[in-house]
Amino acid sequence: MKISKEVKVGLLAIVSGIVLYLGFNFLKGVDFFSPNNSYYAVYDNIDGLTVSNPVTLNGLAVGRVKEITILQNRNNKLLVTLDIDRKIALSDSTTAMLASSGVLGGKYINLIVGPVTRVKESDDTLRSAKEQGIAEIIQAKATPLAQNLDSAIHNINQLVKQFQGVTQTIDATLLSMKKTSSSLNNTLDSNDDAIKGIMSNLNTLSTTLNDSRTGIKPIMRNLNNFTDTLQRMQLAKAVDNANASIASLNRTLNQINEGQGTLGKLAKNDSLYTNLNNAAEDLDSLFIDVKANPGRYIRFSVFGGGKDKKKKDKK
Protein backbone atom coordinates (compact mmCIF):
# COMPACT_ATOMS: atom_id res chain seq x y z
CA MET A 1 0.00 0.00 0.00
CA LYS A 2 1.50 3.18 -1.10
CA ILE A 3 1.11 6.22 1.19
CA SER A 4 0.73 9.47 -0.57
CA LYS A 5 2.86 12.47 0.13
CA GLU A 6 -0.13 14.39 1.45
CA VAL A 7 -0.77 11.77 4.14
CA LYS A 8 2.88 11.74 5.11
CA VAL A 9 2.89 15.50 5.44
CA GLY A 10 -0.29 15.43 7.52
CA LEU A 11 1.03 12.73 9.85
CA LEU A 12 4.30 14.61 10.23
CA ALA A 13 2.42 17.79 11.09
CA ILE A 14 0.29 15.99 13.68
CA VAL A 15 3.32 14.33 15.29
CA SER A 16 5.20 17.64 15.30
CA GLY A 17 2.26 19.37 16.96
CA ILE A 18 2.01 16.69 19.62
CA VAL A 19 5.75 16.82 20.31
CA LEU A 20 5.66 20.61 20.41
CA TYR A 21 2.75 20.60 22.87
CA LEU A 22 4.37 18.00 25.09
CA GLY A 23 7.73 19.77 24.97
CA PHE A 24 6.19 23.15 25.77
CA ASN A 25 4.30 21.76 28.74
CA PHE A 26 7.37 19.84 29.85
CA LEU A 27 9.33 23.08 29.88
CA LYS A 28 6.56 24.57 32.02
CA GLY A 29 6.90 21.68 34.46
CA VAL A 30 4.00 19.52 33.27
CA ASP A 31 4.94 15.90 33.39
CA PHE A 32 2.40 13.81 31.51
CA PHE A 33 4.12 10.57 32.39
CA SER A 34 3.99 10.81 36.19
CA PRO A 35 0.70 10.80 38.11
CA ASN A 36 -0.07 14.01 40.10
CA ASN A 37 -2.51 15.06 42.81
CA SER A 38 -4.42 18.33 42.77
CA TYR A 39 -4.68 20.55 45.86
CA TYR A 40 -6.25 23.94 46.43
CA ALA A 41 -5.23 27.08 48.29
CA VAL A 42 -7.21 30.34 48.70
CA TYR A 43 -5.51 33.77 48.76
CA ASP A 44 -6.69 37.35 49.08
CA ASN A 45 -3.96 38.54 46.71
CA ILE A 46 -1.46 36.49 44.70
CA ASP A 47 0.85 39.42 43.75
CA GLY A 48 1.35 38.35 40.13
CA LEU A 49 1.39 34.56 40.54
CA THR A 50 0.59 32.93 37.18
CA VAL A 51 -0.26 29.49 35.86
CA SER A 52 2.78 27.18 35.53
CA ASN A 53 4.71 28.95 38.31
CA PRO A 54 6.59 26.29 40.30
CA VAL A 55 5.56 24.60 43.52
CA THR A 56 8.58 23.72 45.67
CA LEU A 57 9.35 21.73 48.79
CA ASN A 58 12.60 22.73 50.52
CA GLY A 59 13.78 24.27 47.23
CA LEU A 60 12.92 21.23 45.05
CA ALA A 61 10.27 21.63 42.34
CA VAL A 62 7.51 19.12 43.09
CA GLY A 63 4.70 20.59 41.02
CA ARG A 64 3.26 23.65 39.35
CA VAL A 65 0.36 26.07 39.50
CA LYS A 66 -2.30 24.45 37.38
CA GLU A 67 -5.12 26.98 37.48
CA ILE A 68 -6.18 30.27 39.10
CA THR A 69 -9.86 31.02 39.60
CA ILE A 70 -11.62 34.09 41.01
CA LEU A 71 -14.20 33.32 43.70
CA GLN A 72 -16.61 36.19 43.25
CA ASN A 73 -19.00 34.71 45.78
CA ARG A 74 -16.23 34.99 48.43
CA ASN A 75 -15.23 38.67 48.08
CA ASN A 76 -13.20 37.99 44.93
CA LYS A 77 -10.69 35.74 46.64
CA LEU A 78 -8.41 33.68 44.40
CA LEU A 79 -8.53 29.88 44.26
CA VAL A 80 -5.16 28.47 43.18
CA THR A 81 -5.06 24.86 41.95
CA LEU A 82 -1.74 23.14 42.61
CA ASP A 83 -0.63 20.11 40.58
CA ILE A 84 1.78 18.20 42.86
CA ASP A 85 3.64 14.93 42.38
CA ARG A 86 1.64 12.06 43.84
CA LYS A 87 4.74 10.71 45.55
CA ILE A 88 4.76 13.74 47.88
CA ALA A 89 2.72 13.07 51.02
CA LEU A 90 1.26 16.24 52.45
CA SER A 91 0.21 16.34 56.10
CA ASP A 92 -2.87 17.95 57.52
CA SER A 93 -0.74 20.91 58.73
CA THR A 94 0.88 21.64 55.34
CA THR A 95 0.91 25.32 54.40
CA ALA A 96 1.10 26.67 50.84
CA MET A 97 3.28 29.76 51.28
CA LEU A 98 3.18 32.36 48.48
CA ALA A 99 6.77 33.59 48.18
CA SER A 100 9.06 35.65 45.95
CA SER A 101 11.99 34.07 44.16
CA GLY A 102 14.21 37.16 43.98
CA VAL A 103 14.55 40.92 43.84
CA LEU A 104 12.53 41.06 40.62
CA GLY A 105 9.63 39.40 42.44
CA GLY A 106 9.09 36.10 40.58
CA LYS A 107 6.36 34.25 42.49
CA TYR A 108 6.12 30.59 43.44
CA ILE A 109 4.38 28.37 46.00
CA ASN A 110 6.57 26.95 48.76
CA LEU A 111 5.14 23.97 50.63
CA ILE A 112 5.81 23.90 54.37
CA VAL A 113 5.06 20.36 55.53
CA GLY A 114 4.67 19.66 59.23
CA PRO A 115 4.70 16.30 61.01
CA VAL A 116 2.62 13.82 59.01
CA THR A 117 -0.23 12.74 61.27
CA ARG A 118 -2.90 12.53 58.59
CA VAL A 119 -2.13 12.56 54.87
CA LYS A 120 -4.01 15.00 52.69
CA GLU A 121 -6.02 13.44 49.92
CA SER A 122 -6.12 14.76 46.37
CA ASP A 123 -8.50 17.71 45.86
CA ASP A 124 -8.11 18.77 49.54
CA THR A 125 -7.59 22.43 50.45
CA LEU A 126 -4.28 23.43 52.01
CA ARG A 127 -3.62 26.21 54.47
CA SER A 128 -2.49 29.37 52.72
CA ALA A 129 -0.06 32.06 53.80
CA LYS A 130 1.87 34.88 52.22
CA GLU A 131 5.54 35.53 52.76
CA GLN A 132 6.53 39.13 53.31
CA GLY A 133 8.20 40.27 50.13
CA ILE A 134 11.04 42.68 49.62
CA ALA A 135 8.59 45.45 48.76
CA GLU A 136 6.70 44.90 52.02
CA ILE A 137 9.96 44.80 54.00
CA ILE A 138 11.16 48.00 52.35
CA GLN A 139 7.80 49.62 52.99
CA ALA A 140 7.83 48.56 56.65
CA LYS A 141 11.35 49.93 57.06
CA ALA A 142 10.67 53.02 55.00
CA THR A 143 7.57 54.11 56.93
CA PRO A 144 9.38 55.04 60.21
CA LEU A 145 12.29 56.31 58.13
CA ALA A 146 9.93 58.58 56.23
CA GLN A 147 8.41 59.78 59.51
CA ASN A 148 11.86 60.53 60.92
CA LEU A 149 12.81 62.26 57.68
CA ASP A 150 9.64 64.34 57.82
CA SER A 151 10.41 65.30 61.43
CA ALA A 152 13.98 66.19 60.46
CA ILE A 153 12.72 68.34 57.57
CA HIS A 154 10.30 70.06 59.95
CA ASN A 155 13.14 70.78 62.40
CA ILE A 156 15.30 72.06 59.55
CA ASN A 157 12.49 74.38 58.48
CA GLN A 158 12.20 75.68 62.04
CA LEU A 159 15.96 76.27 62.16
CA VAL A 160 15.81 78.07 58.83
CA LYS A 161 13.03 80.31 60.13
CA GLN A 162 15.00 81.05 63.29
CA PHE A 163 18.11 81.72 61.22
CA GLN A 164 16.09 84.09 59.06
CA GLY A 165 14.97 85.92 62.20
CA VAL A 166 18.56 86.11 63.44
CA THR A 167 19.65 87.33 60.02
CA GLN A 168 17.05 90.09 60.13
CA THR A 169 18.25 91.09 63.60
CA ILE A 170 21.86 91.14 62.41
CA ASP A 171 20.88 93.22 59.40
CA ALA A 172 19.06 95.69 61.65
CA THR A 173 22.07 95.85 63.99
CA LEU A 174 24.47 96.42 61.11
CA LEU A 175 22.19 99.13 59.72
CA SER A 176 22.07 100.82 63.14
CA MET A 177 25.86 100.61 63.44
CA LYS A 178 26.19 102.05 59.96
CA LYS A 179 23.92 104.96 60.89
CA THR A 180 25.84 105.51 64.14
CA SER A 181 29.15 105.44 62.30
CA SER A 182 27.84 107.87 59.71
CA SER A 183 26.54 110.20 62.44
CA LEU A 184 29.87 110.01 64.26
CA ASN A 185 31.76 110.79 61.08
CA ASN A 186 29.50 113.77 60.43
CA THR A 187 30.04 114.99 63.99
CA LEU A 188 33.80 114.65 63.66
CA ASP A 189 33.77 116.42 60.31
CA SER A 190 31.67 119.30 61.63
CA ASN A 191 33.89 119.71 64.71
CA ASP A 192 37.19 119.10 63.02
CA ASP A 193 38.56 122.56 63.83
CA ALA A 194 37.50 122.33 67.48
CA ILE A 195 39.06 118.86 67.82
CA LYS A 196 42.27 120.10 66.26
CA GLY A 197 42.30 123.02 68.73
CA ILE A 198 41.77 120.66 71.67
CA MET A 199 44.55 118.38 70.49
CA SER A 200 46.84 121.40 70.03
CA ASN A 201 46.07 122.59 73.56
CA LEU A 202 46.72 119.10 74.91
CA ASN A 203 50.05 118.98 73.13
CA THR A 204 50.97 122.41 74.52
CA LEU A 205 49.94 121.35 78.02
CA SER A 206 51.92 118.13 77.72
CA THR A 207 54.98 120.05 76.54
CA THR A 208 54.62 122.52 79.40
CA LEU A 209 54.27 119.75 81.98
CA ASN A 210 57.31 117.95 80.60
CA ASP A 211 59.44 121.14 80.77
CA SER A 212 62.08 120.65 83.50
CA ARG A 213 62.01 124.34 84.52
CA THR A 214 58.33 125.33 84.33
CA GLY A 215 56.65 121.94 84.16
CA ILE A 216 55.05 119.68 86.72
CA LYS A 217 58.33 118.40 88.19
CA PRO A 218 59.42 121.66 89.91
CA ILE A 219 55.84 122.18 91.11
CA MET A 220 55.78 118.72 92.66
CA ARG A 221 59.24 119.26 94.15
CA ASN A 222 58.14 122.55 95.78
CA LEU A 223 54.95 120.93 97.01
CA ASN A 224 56.93 118.11 98.62
CA ASN A 225 59.26 120.62 100.31
CA PHE A 226 56.30 122.62 101.62
CA THR A 227 54.66 119.46 102.96
CA ASP A 228 57.85 118.38 104.72
CA THR A 229 58.29 121.85 106.30
CA LEU A 230 54.67 121.93 107.43
CA GLN A 231 54.95 118.50 108.98
CA ARG A 232 58.13 119.47 110.86
CA MET A 233 56.53 122.71 112.15
CA GLN A 234 53.38 120.97 113.35
CA LEU A 235 55.37 118.22 115.01
CA ALA A 236 57.60 120.71 116.84
CA LYS A 237 54.60 122.75 117.95
CA ALA A 238 52.82 119.64 119.22
CA VAL A 239 55.90 118.59 121.17
CA ASP A 240 56.22 122.06 122.74
CA ASN A 241 52.54 122.10 123.73
CA ALA A 242 52.85 118.66 125.26
CA ASN A 243 55.90 119.69 127.25
CA ALA A 244 54.14 122.84 128.52
CA SER A 245 51.07 120.83 129.55
CA ILE A 246 53.21 118.31 131.40
CA ALA A 247 55.10 121.09 133.22
CA SER A 248 51.84 122.80 134.26
CA LEU A 249 50.45 119.50 135.50
CA ASN A 250 53.60 118.89 137.51
CA ARG A 251 53.34 122.34 139.15
CA THR A 252 49.69 121.72 140.05
CA LEU A 253 50.49 118.35 141.58
CA ASN A 254 53.36 119.89 143.57
CA GLN A 255 51.03 122.62 144.93
CA ILE A 256 48.48 119.99 145.95
CA ASN A 257 51.15 117.96 147.68
CA GLU A 258 52.35 121.10 149.51
CA GLY A 259 48.80 121.92 150.68
CA GLN A 260 48.46 125.06 148.57
CA GLY A 261 45.10 126.06 147.13
CA THR A 262 41.69 124.53 147.75
CA LEU A 263 42.62 121.08 146.47
CA GLY A 264 45.80 121.16 148.53
CA LYS A 265 43.90 122.04 151.69
CA LEU A 266 41.37 119.29 150.99
CA ALA A 267 44.18 116.84 150.45
CA LYS A 268 46.27 117.89 153.53
CA ASN A 269 43.66 119.18 156.06
CA ASP A 270 40.62 117.02 156.82
CA SER A 271 38.87 119.69 158.98
CA LEU A 272 37.34 121.32 155.90
CA TYR A 273 36.02 117.97 154.80
CA THR A 274 34.60 117.35 158.29
CA ASN A 275 32.87 120.77 158.38
CA LEU A 276 31.37 120.22 154.95
CA ASN A 277 30.14 116.81 156.01
CA ASN A 278 28.53 118.23 159.19
CA ALA A 279 26.87 121.03 157.22
CA ALA A 280 25.43 118.48 154.82
CA GLU A 281 24.06 116.42 157.71
CA ASP A 282 22.43 119.54 159.32
CA LEU A 283 20.86 120.54 156.03
CA ASP A 284 19.50 117.05 155.57
CA SER A 285 17.97 117.13 159.08
CA LEU A 286 16.36 120.50 158.32
CA PHE A 287 14.76 119.15 155.13
CA ILE A 288 13.39 116.20 157.05
CA ASP A 289 11.85 118.46 159.77
CA VAL A 290 10.33 120.82 157.17
CA LYS A 291 8.75 117.88 155.47
CA ALA A 292 7.38 116.51 158.75
CA ASN A 293 6.24 119.90 160.28
CA PRO A 294 5.65 122.37 157.49
CA GLY A 295 3.46 124.60 159.76
CA ARG A 296 6.48 125.69 161.79
CA TYR A 297 8.15 127.25 158.80
CA ILE A 298 5.37 128.20 156.31
CA ARG A 299 2.21 130.29 157.25
CA PHE A 300 -0.47 131.54 154.82
CA SER A 301 -4.11 132.89 154.90
CA VAL A 302 -6.96 131.88 152.66
CA PHE A 303 -8.24 135.45 152.30
CA GLY A 304 -4.82 136.93 152.14
CA GLY A 305 -3.62 139.74 154.41
CA GLY A 306 -6.46 139.55 157.02
CA LYS A 307 -4.18 139.31 160.04
CA ASP A 308 -2.03 142.18 158.84
CA LYS A 309 -5.14 144.39 158.54
CA LYS A 310 -6.21 143.67 162.15
CA LYS A 311 -2.72 144.53 163.39
CA LYS A 312 -2.93 147.93 161.61
CA ASP A 313 -6.37 148.72 163.20
CA LYS A 314 -4.99 147.96 166.68
CA LYS A 315 -2.15 150.35 166.09
UniProtKB/TrEMBL annotation:
Gene3D superfamilies reported for this sequence: Methyl-accepting chemotaxis protein
Coiled-coil zones: none
Pfam family name, one: MlaD
Domain of life, per lineage: Bacteria
Transmembrane segments: 7-27
Keywords, alphabetical: Membrane, Transmembrane, Transmembrane helix
Protein name listed in UniProt: MCE family protein
Chain ranges of the Mce/MlaD domain: 36-113
